[in-house]
Amino acid sequence: MLNLLLELPEYTICCVVTTNRNALRLDVLQLLHRRDIPLVDKSSGASEMECVSAAFFHADLICLAGFLKKLQITDGYEDRVLNIHPSLIPAFCGEGMYGNKVHDHAIASGVQYSGCTVHFCDPDYDTGAIILQRLVKIQENWDSHALADAVFEQEKIAYPIAIRAFGENYERGKRIDLNRIIKQAREIQRLLDTQGTHPAHD
Question: Is pTM beyond 0.90 here?
Answer without folding.
Answer: no
